[in-house]
Amino acid sequence: MNVSRETAERFTLYETLLRRWNPKINLVSPATLPDLRTRHIDDCLQLVRLADPQGGEWVDLGSGGGLPGLVVAIACADRPVTVKLVESDQRKAAFLRTVIRELDLPRASVLCARIEGIKSLNAAYVSARALAPLPRLMAYLDHHLAADGQAWLLKGAQWQSEVEEARRHWKFDLFSYPSETQHGAAILRISRLSHE
């Protein structure tokens, strides 16, 4: 994804902050730090390119180190997209707030709370990465996604078996995109979700 010079500078600063904070609060696996750009940032940028949000509210569940929520906020900084990062860990929420402040991302905010403990956010877009298996994610998506919204999920190589299991209790439209950064992984777009 081609980005402006300002956006590229924000990503560089985000990387720097993530590397600085990671030894203290383990935002990403230390083994992946040498490949931080490809393994994490470029991986999440695929999602932004596919969803191409032009406006509305984006909610990232279990944001952790801001993947993909902060990547969305940085890539969409010049669009009318508000990004809400939901993270229950106080230390990780502090990291997210620091990045938002340092990178000047006024349309991004942090909600430090448990996902199931907050009222419906009724978002146009909901994302999650490495949060939970799809069958467990479905209740969160059902609670926080607007009726005409889309969920964008980055899933590993076992994504097809997760989809099969989720379909036992949920009805939903699904479109999958092969990951360009991880062999066998996929980006899932889920919509029209309802409980069986």
From TrEMBL:
Molecular-function annotations in GO: rRNA (guanine-N7-)-methyltransferase activity
UniProt subcellular location: Cytoplasm
Catalysis: reaction(s): guanosine(527) in 16S rRNA + S-adenosyl-L-methionine = N(7)-methylguanosine(527) in 16S rRNA + S-adenosyl-L-homocysteine
Chief location: cytoplasm
UniProt-listed InterPro entries: rRNA_ssu_MeTfrase_G (IPR003682), SAM-dependent_MTases_sf (IPR029063)
Assigned keywords, A-Z: Cytoplasm, Methyltransferase, rRNA processing, S-adenosyl-L-methionine, Transferase
Enzyme class: transferase
Binding sites annotated in the UniProt record for S-adenosyl-L-methionine: 62, 67, 115-116, 129
Matching PANTHER family: S-ADENOSYL-L-METHIONINE-DEPENDENT METHYLTRANSFERASES SUPERFAMILY PROTEIN (PTHR31760:SF0)
Family: Belongs to the methyltransferase superfamily. RNA methyltransferase RsmG family.
Name of this chain's protein: Ribosomal RNA small subunit methyltransferase G
Source organism per UniProt: Paracoccus siganidrum
Gene for this chain: rsmG
